[in-house]
């Protein structure tokens, strides 16, 4: 019975599901979150001129370093709540992820004002991450058992 919504399961129901718990798609998203957190922190703390080249100036790179740090920190609630299968994990993680996406969108389009081809690539990548995570977090592969 797939309702497309987060729901609690009994231990017996949980054991019948192949991808239940901290495995399957949740594990894939968790590994992706760890990778993105490390990648964003590396991008923020890296002193090479890569960000300045991508965003047009050192001032823009400084803005994006702050954005990257905030985006990296936005993964922490998910990384803490996912292994314990906390029932609030999907909601909290989605709120953090959407906030990070909106922050990046505002910084890229309005603060820095990147030209359209560059900004669209950044926005599409971030949107795919947010949509992919929201889809995976609402599948039957993720659930929280209730104690019986």
Sum up the structure in keywords.
single chain, 148 residues, two-stranded parallel ribbon, 4% strand
Mean pLDDT over the residues = 77
Radius of gyration: 18 Å
Instruction: Please write the string of helix (H) and strand (E) elements.
Output: EHHHHHHHE
User: What distance separates the N and C termini?
Assistant: 20 Å
Question: Order of strands across the biggest sheet?
Answer: 1-2
Biggest sheet record: 2 strands, parallel
Number of domains: 1
Given helix and strand content, the structural type is mainly alpha
Strand segment count:
2
Quote the beta fraction.
Answer: under 5%
The low-confidence parts are 140-148
Estimate percent helicity.
Answer: 55-70%
Overall shape: it is elongated
Number of helices: 7
Write a structural description.
The protein has 148 residues and is mainly alpha-helical. The protein has one domain. Helices cover 68% and strands 4% of the residues. The protein is built from seven helices and two strands, in the order βαααααααβ. A two-stranded parallel sheet has the order 1-2. Helix 2 packs antiparallel against helix 4 (58-73), helix 4 runs antiparallel to helix 6 and helix 6 runs antiparallel to helix 7. The longest helix has 23 residues, at 89-111. It is elongated. It starts with 7 loop residues before the first strand and ends with a strand.
């Amino acid at each position: 019975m797939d309702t497309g919504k987060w729901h609690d399961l009994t231990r017996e129901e949980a054991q019948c599901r192949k991808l239940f718990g901290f495995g399957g798609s949740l594990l894939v998203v968790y590994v992706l979150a760890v990778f993105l957190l490390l990648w964003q922190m590396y991008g923020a703390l890296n002193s090479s001129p890569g960000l300045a080249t991508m965003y047009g100036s050192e001032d823009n790179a400084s803005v994006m370093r702050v954005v990257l740090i905030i985006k990296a920190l936005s993964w922490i609630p998910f990384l803490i709540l996912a292994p314990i299968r906390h029932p609030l994990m999907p909601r909290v993680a989605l709120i953090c992820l959407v906030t990070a996406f909106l922050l990046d969108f505002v910084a890229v389009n309005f603060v820095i004002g990147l030209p359209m081809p560059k900004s669209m690539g950044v926005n599409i990548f971030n949107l795919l991450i947010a949509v992919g995570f929201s889809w995976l977090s609402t599948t039957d592969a993720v659930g929280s058992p209730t104690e019986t």
